[in-house]
Amino acid sequence: MTTPEISVIVPTYNRRAMVREAIASVLAQRGASFELIVVDDGSTDGTWEDLARRAGCGDSTLRAIRTANRGPAAARNCGLALARGRLIAFLDSDDLWAPDKLARQSAFMRANPHLAISQTAELWLRNGQRVNPGRRHLKRPGYFFADALRTCLISPSAVIVKRALLDEAGGFDEAMAACEDYDLWLRILARHPVGLLDEPLVTRRAGHPGQLSATIPALDRFRILALAKLLGDGTLDAERRAAAAEVMEEKCAIYAHGLACRGRAADAAFFIAAGRAAVERWRRAPDAELGRAIARMRATLTVSRGAGVP
After folding, report:
1. What pTM does this model have?
2. Calculated CA dihedral for residues 226, 121, 92, 145, nearest 10 degrees
3. Distance separating alpha carbons of residues 176 and 154, to the nearest angstrom
């Protein structure tokens, strides 16, 4: 069996119609050596039956895997465990690729061997209508760790990453039901530049009911955990530590305000104290209190999909 250059990983959950279109956009790729791994994260809408039927029709390019519902991080990690390519591409099941996306981007990676990760530009659709991203969302090349702290500037569907870099970074944090990509990209950006192929080779579709940002509440609690984990990394340089601490304090204040409005004074006080400690102590070095804070933050993420804020 020939080893493909690229492994494409598509996680999906209850997006039967959209994932069909996403798969079609992958199988339409021209001029690239790839395998496609679709991980069904415990769908209940017939997605798995569609995938199993298609995979059983003898299409050797497509491999379909079904798992219990554990979220996109676990689904992507499952795909990674099966991947054979030296390059990894992710596609969210609500997005689409242009037919030459893989060929153009893999050529870009070969032409820039110093890069371990790159992304392309995107077209944005909301409720089927073309929209323009705000200036803060515009993609950029190089080292942009500080800019990415407030706004996630890397899109999973636009990325190609060397498998060795994902192994080094440790993959996605499976405790995070959302913002797991923000967490991983920040860990990578702390040490690596990101290349940009400034061509809109991805169509990003938003506004549909199954979008995670619409179904999982209080996303800042995931971002705060990601920032605390960064501050727990004793190898982060002083400039990046200071930037991460500043943003963590901002997000803790926002989240704490929401908790206080819901009558959860003790939890609000914890996050206010964590934000203060970030700028007063953790910006210089991690300590045992930071470890305990991270453990408590993780405990707040045990809410099930679609449930209220814990």
Report:
1. 0.92
2. -10
3. 17
Q: Domain spanning 6-215 has what CATH number?
A: 3.90.550.10
Instruction: Say if strands 195-206 and 117-126 run parallel, antiparallel, or are unpaired.
Output: parallel
Q: From CA 166, how far away is CA 270, in angstroms rounded?
A: 33
**How is residue 83 written in tokens?**
């991947």
CA 280 to chain centre: 29
How many CA atoms within 13 Å lie on the side-chain side of 302? 6
CA distance 280 to 57: 60
What span, in angstroms and rounded, lies between the C-alpha atoms of 20 and 17? 5
Distance between CA atoms of 96 and 22, rounded to whole angstroms? 5
Q: Where in the chain is the domain with CATH 3.90.550.10?
A: 6-215
pLDDT single digits (tens) 271-305:
999 999 999 999 999 999 999 999 999 998 864 34
CA contacts within 13 A on the Cβ side of 26: 28
Q: Are 231 and 282 in contact (CB under 8 A)?
A: yes
| Model pLDDT for residues 22-80, shown as the tens digit of each residue | 999 999 999 999 999 999 999 999 999 999 988 776 666 799 999 999 999 999 999 99
For residue 87, the one-letter residue type is: L
Within 10 A of 211 (CB to CB), how many other CB atoms are there?
14
